[in-house]
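FAQ: What does a ligand-bound record look like?

Like this one, built around magnesium ion:
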Amino acid sequence: MVETRRSATLALVGLPNSGKSTLLNTLVGEKLAAVSQMPQTTRARILGIVNRGPVQLAFLDTPGVHLARHALNQRMLHHVDMALDEADLLLWVVDAAGFLGPGERELAKRLKGARQPVYLILNKLDLVSRGTLLEKIAAYKDLLAFREIVPVSAKLGQNLEPLWTLLERDAPAGEWAHGDETFTDQTERSMATEFIREKVLRKTREEVPHGVAVEIRTWIEAGAEDYPEDGPEGGTFIEAEIVVERSGHRKILLGSGGEMIRDIRQSAQRELKKLLQRPVRLALHIKVEEGWRDRPEQLDKFHL
Ligand SMILES: Nc1nc2c(ncn2[C@@H]2O[C@H](COP(=O)(O)OP(=O)(O)OP(=O)(O)O)[C@@H](O)[C@H]2O)c(=O)[nH]1
Ligand SMILES: [Mg+2]
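The answer part, i.e. the structure of the complex:
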């Protein structure tokens, strides 16, 4: 007998840096989303799909909820709203090692009005003692009527089994929305863009990361007529532009003697090889575009 198929769309929401993208990557078992110690790493919604027996779970990673200062931030928050709208279940990811502050209270108010059940995912379990964890559960419990509270470590993949069991239980009966081979809607190009930006975020500090965008300029496969002579055999040649907001930021990215950009290029190239499973040569350029974060046509160009 064939079991009835079930399927659910789940939105991962929360404040910046709580570990939503790490959780998405761990749940899907593939690196889809950029992860960094910088808040506001994720800028758009990223879909990751997992099929478990008769159940299809489609996770939507979203940008961390924050104050909208630029047009870019408004677009990021729009992605959160759309995911909240689309989802059957909401997973509110919080940093268990963090402080329950006004941002969390504000988000709790918003989630209270949601039509979907809300899970509280207490992430970064590996950083807290059992006592702290129990205190956190007690504090969050009063904020809203959670369907479930599940502590996990997204980074170490701890305590995911109970989460899977609950999600499978809560997935409504229904046909799968995605093919059984599909695990994301991201293209190789959009993932490449994310991973290059991730490397920049991991190396830079303060205002630089927030003002960085990446655009792929050239993408040529071996065998194509215009494939460069020094491109790797049987591989891909990728040329990307890192856009920054100020010439001072350009200098920071270059580093002394071009050391910083060399570092970024090398680690991004390694990541792209892993992603594409073939040799890659990556060339990077830096361009200054003042105020791009507030220009709608620029945001469109960056698919934000
Ligand atoms: N120790 C520990 N660190 C974690 C865990 N999950 C995530 N992190 C770290 O927390 C930081 C933020 O992780 P992200 O996954 O980028 O967080 P996010 O919620 O997607 O952040 P935004 O995209 O900015 O909203 C990174 O440095 C992660 O390595 C965890 O379970 N344990
Ligand atoms: Mg993220």
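Follow-up question: can I read anything off the structure? Yes, for example: Residues 14, 16-22, 35-37, 39-42, 63-64, 123-124, 126-127, 153-155 surround guanosine-5'-triphosphate (ligand 1) (CB under 6 Å).
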